[in-house]
Amino acid sequence: MTRIRLTGLTKVFDGGVTALDRLDLTVEPGEFFALLGPSGCGKTTLLRTMAGLEQATSGTIRFAERDVTRVAPGDRDVAMVFQDYALFPHMTVVDNISYPLKVKGRAKPERTARAEEVGRQLGLEALTARRPSALSGGQQQRVALARAVACRPALFLFDEPLSNLDARLRLEARGFLKRLQRELGVTTVFVTHDQAEALALADRIAVMESGRVRQLGTPREVFARPADTFVANFIGSTPMNLVPAEVEGDRLRVAGGVFAAPQGVVAGSAKVTAGIRPEYLRLHDAEPTDAPDAPTGTVSILENLGATTLVTVDCGGESLSAVVPEDAEPAPGSRVWLTPQPGRLLVYDNDSGELLPRRDPAG
Question: What is the pTM of this model?
Fold first, then answer.
């Protein structure tokens, strides 16, 4: 298994556009690592630079202890799967899978046997004589993966390989891809703009913006404690509530009411931004006895999410959203009170947008 180490990696395109800005990053051996961010954040450029399809302007790329910064793509021992699969339309499935082995000069019996073996592992044994035009999107995706697996590379580099699939197939492919990576144990870097994919698949996620990493952590870390308001807005199927707040001792005045401030939070200014995910915000149909000053307001919008409902509440001149079970859905126009689940309220600096630290009570 191979460790990837990027040091001071910079990529500037003609015209002065900086796609990667002095980026330092380490991907551990055997890790499933996601590069996540909006269009234009630099994630695909980073993957292509790892693969050697783009040349770094400065900085170094190391695979294990080997400096591959200026090494040709074919000599980096990586396999790449693209968004459009890049299958050869005139070749059969078995020939598509075995083609990289042909380029490496392997004998036909060996490459055919390897292609058929990998095809069986990926459930393609009945399709080996077909051409890509006779395959579904999910089958083409598996052929592209089989071609990468047949090479037995040191690294997998995936550039949004699931984005062309419909919703049902994407869910199936997600589970399949994670299981395959675990079985093979190959270090994998996966580019996606879909935060649900990154949260479901990755061991760790690098959230990127403007060629830099805004947060690096496990899916649980980046979801539960976003490092700044950019990450907080980007991660989560329902956007985090980010509302102006004022610090008053151990309390936060928010949306016309009061929340207890997170224990030990250190604020340099009385004016901050309070952050709470809708999943962690509770609704009450009467004023809670343990939080008499909780924000209160009127239910304005109900959005059915299936087993849950996203409820938007207008209160104190702000809108707050909460996710509730389908059997706890309030009536439109009803009055409700809101309280955060213990330990789930976050506080961000107004100027930098960064998550405010907590002081250790024992320190």
Answer: 0.87
